[in-house]
Please model this.
Amino acid sequence: MKLKTSSDIVRTFTLEVFLETRDREVEISVEVGFEWQNDGIGAYEYWGDKGVDKGTDYLVTTEELWDNTGFDPNECEAIEAEIKASIQGWCIGTEKSLRDRCDD
Model:
């Protein structure tokens, strides 16, 4: 089953999860949607001084999709926990690769 995210930036990651109910590792393909966000406030005035806070651009996940067909609720919970634990690393890696590509 092919899952499709609506995000502009999409990466597919492979995650190996040990499931006690099956007594083995399973390989899960996770499609992750990302978007750029910025923590700047833009133009401002402070006691008569005018300035612009450009902020910092960073990636956040918008959605994580994976095919849960054939997994029971406990297995899905374990897989979701592994996905959640991997998200920050995936964001950092994706952001780095996108910035490196822009620097070339």
